[in-house]
Design brief:
65 residues; single chain; 15% strand; alpha+beta; two-stranded parallel sheet; flat
């Protein structure tokens, strides 16, 4: 699923928001194998993802005002 979606939209970064994957290097390596070589992966906790997305949405809203 990851490779199909990322290739369709030409994603160059895949953000994985999962607390269990964040602390499990083996699962990260498995996910890294499934991703195309041109794409990077980043692993965040759910809380960090919420904080980052919130900041991005706020900054975009501020920029467009």
């Amino acid at each position: 699923m990851v490779t199909r979606c990322s290739s369709t939209i030409n994603a160059n970064l895949l953000l994985v928001a999962n607390d269990k994957v964040l602390t499990n290097k083996f699962r990260q390596e498995l996910m890294g194998i499934a991703v195309f070589s041109y794409a990077k992966t980043r692993y965040f906790s759910l809380q960090k993802t919420i904080e980052v997305i919130h900041k991005i949405v706020w900054l975009k809203a501020f920029y467009y005002v």
